[in-house]
Every structure is written in C-alpha cells, then in structure tokens.
Design goal:
87 residues, mainly alpha, 30s Ribosomal Protein S18, 4 helices, 34% helix, elongated
Length: 87
C-alpha cells in the first residue's frame, strides 16, 4: 500500500507591517448621517472633481454604503440643476 499522509492545515501568523493601517470611518458614518441630502450642495461639491466627476471611494474616503447614497444624491442634484453634469 501507498504511504498516505494527511495534509495538515497551515496557519499563517498575521504580522502588521508599515503598509497596514487602522481603518477610519467615512465622514457620513462619523456624523451618523442616515440620508445624504441632495440639496446640501457644499457637501456634494467636495465629492466632485472640478470637471464634475464623482470621486472614487478610495479618494473620497467613503464606505460602500455611503458612496452609493452620495451617488444617488449627486444624480438627483444634477437632475434638479443644482449641480452641473460636466464643467
């Protein structure tokens, strides 16, 4: 018969390197905002480029849920002509 060995599960130790940081909350989660208001132009303009494009999550620092809320708020504000579609 063959010599059969069972594979042992390998466990890796987590080491914290200089590249890993503690996660920070996005600005809307910090404030406890449930709804991103499309009429709040000052806040929404901070999340747009000068050309009118929406900043990415990585650039703006928003979490996924708040980024989706921001996206719909910006689209509503554009439709109501509060924000430009482009520069």
């Amino acid at each position: 018969m063959r010599n059969m060995r069972q594979a042992k599960p390998t466990r890796r130790k987590r080491r914290f390197s200089a590249g890993m940081r503690e996660q920070t909350q996005c600005r809307f989660c910090r404030e406890g905002t449930k709804y991103v208001d499309y009429k709040d132009i000052e806040t929404l303009q901070k999340l747009l480029t000068h050309r009118g494009k929406i900043f990415s999550r990585k650039r703006s620092g928003n979490c996924a849920g708040c980024q989706r809320k921001v996206k719909t708020a910006i689209k509503r504000a554009r439709f109501m002509a509060l924000l430009p579609f482009s520069s």
